[in-house]
Structure prediction request, 414 residues.
Amino acid sequence: MNKFDVIVVGAGPAGLLAAGRAAELGGKVLVLEKMRQAGRKLLITGKGRCNITNDSNIDDFIGHVQPNGRFLRSAFSQFYSSEILDLLKRYGVDSTLERGGRYFPTSNKSSDVLSGLLAWVNEMKVEMRCGLRVEKLLVENNTVKGLQANGQQYLSGKIILAMGGKSYPATGSNGDGYELAKQIGHTIEKVRPALVPLETEGNLARRLQGLNLKNVRAVVWVNEKKVAEDFGEMIFTHFGLSGPIILTLSRMVVDALQLNKLVEISIDLKPALDEQKLDNRLLRDLNEHGKKRVINVFRYWLPASMVPVFIDLLGLDPDKECHQVSAKERKQIRHLLKNLSFKVTNHRSFKEAIISAGGVTTKEISSKTMESKLVSGLYFAGEMIDLDGETGGYNLQIAYSTGWLAGDSCVKDL
Prediction:
């Protein structure tokens, strides 16, 4: 008989936390996953290392979540970073704190994180069935009664949708969950790629392809107005810009591009020096090495692979001796070091986006329980909800916390 206390749709981090918690409280729980195995997307997070969570306090964390981080306060108060780290440790997964407050498994293997979560849900006697795609929800009088998957009905008065967003569709996140929610009347805020690399005009990025920069500042300009900035690490690609600070800033860029606004990103290669200090440094180095070719002194200021590109942009004669560099040329050098600019023409697709922005509006979900305000017995968790965080473990923690709260709430209501 396909009858269960709780059915969880989706075996990613949100679904596994929901299922494990519901079963821990005594529920008979079924997880349905359309892929052949659980946690496909979890395995590729953090470039296969899995940035488990972040050690930010709750108030700080909420500030890293769009568009309504306050919605998460109840979920975080019940299950937060220390709880997920403790749970994983119980199943043999130690974690290590790295810069930026990021926790990774000590083994550096995302597969260990998935194995830990699966060990927990198995111990809790959760039933898992893979290769089953949910086609519709069975709802009567605004109350959930079950669902249909692969043409077969599964009955339950408690269903948790944890089906992910649209990013990395090859892992199973292709937007199915939004369609199910829409069919029963939920509002879906426009879904778009977030934490996504950016495409830029011209061949400048391509000429610098593969160069990784640390400790630089990126500034986003929309219609020539400064709207955001971030400090840290980035990388040049054959199509444009990527890396942590670019991904963080991309959310604002994607929204501006969709409104056909002019978007530029400028890179400050010397953020620790203001204009005057940088000018003093340039002057000192040029004077000190007066007889040297200017191209050789540029190597004190920039990574070697960047030097010929920079010289080219400036239109400088690489063989010019340092003492021949004019004040005007020095000003141009200084300006370019502080403002290496790129016009953003597009963003990459969902295939390269770490997460999705948009989803089921939080206005139609109870923040205290994760239950739908429209359909009794239906709960949401994870990336399906219109919440997205920056890089650094924030999005996985949203998944764990909303999953836990949904699993906890639905069984307490039985």
